[in-house]
Amino acid sequence: MSGHLMFGRGGAAFEISSALVDTTALSVVKRDGVKLINQYEVIKDLGRGSFGKVKLVRHTDTGELFAMKVMNKNVLRKKRMGTRNLLMDVEHEIKVMKLLDHPNIIKMYEVIDSHEHHKLYLRLEYMEGGQCMDSKSDSQALSEATARKYFRDLIAGVEYMHSVGVIHRDIKPENLLLDKNGTVKLADFGTGQIVEGTHMINKSSGTPAFAAPEACVEGAFSGFAADVWACGVSLYMYLHGKCPFMSPNLVAIFQMIRENEPVYSPTLSPEARDLLEKLLDKDPATRITISGIMSHQWMAEQ
């Protein structure tokens, strides 16, 4: 089936481009108390979000584990954010993820969508270790050695992502997941933006506490530099267990980000503090770049 507009049961239109669909044959059955989605056995629920459920599934022949995102297209089509509905946002995330193939970015293996069914299925890499840190509350600070390992993985993924013209716009520990080997992978590309020719953007997105100073005011700014700032806030959180700027008031957070300097732990090594100060430079023109981060002394330590 070609084109952008399809029709579901009862003639209801849903908008997923057929060019993004890998598999149109879909079988969902229960056999001996076990639910099967095509050749994948459902093991358990992993979580639930605004877009749908995530289930742990196992390939019936190979035994390989995957995360299966299950979304109701009719529900997503009815949920609107401004001029867009959530199904359009899901389609955008699929487009972004199909551009990406890197060891430090979560992999999407398959998009399953049949016009005979009202549900959309995304088969993703299973990240057994879960979030490397919760962004929502005070957490135990990591050792510099662990923080460095996680941060190296993050920066490797961001370097690749920027090289193919993708800005994430919501980098934070909550979106940095661990696989079974302890490797950090960047996830959740719902706010991702594909750029061509320029990396200047004019719309802030993502989580306020991780927003760059230049994203807190009107006007265009570099999406690459804003991602670097969010990497800096993530590293700060690794090393302090909390964000540098926090307030229940959104206006206050943005003011703090623009005007206040972070408070650094006296236990930080001089090299860690130096890198953090370069990452959290309020001027995007002088803020450290990805190549600068990779060659920084703290990154090279064992």
**What is the domain tally?**
2
Mean pLDDT over all positions: 91
Largest sheet, in brief, is:
7 strands, antiparallel
- The number of strands is 18
Give the DSSP E fraction (strand runs of 2 or more residues): 15-25%
Q: Could you say which overall geometry the principal axes of the C-alpha atoms support?
A: globular
**Which topology of the largest domain does CATH recognise?**
Transferase(Phosphotransferase), domain 1
- Order of strands across the main sheet: 3-4-5-6-7-11-10
Which second-level CATH architecture of the largest domain applies? Orthogonal Bundle
Assembly type: single chain
Low-pLDDT regions: 1-14
Share in helix: 25-40%
Terminal-residue CA separation: 53 Å
Class computed from helices, strands and strand pairing:
alpha+beta
CATH superfamily membership of the largest domain: Transferase(Phosphotransferase) domain 1
Q: Report the CATH C-level class of the largest domain.
A: Mainly Alpha
How many alpha or pi helices?
A: 8
For the CA atoms, what is the radius of gyration?
A: 21 Å
Order of helices and strands: EEEEEEEHEEHEEEHEEEEEEHHHHH
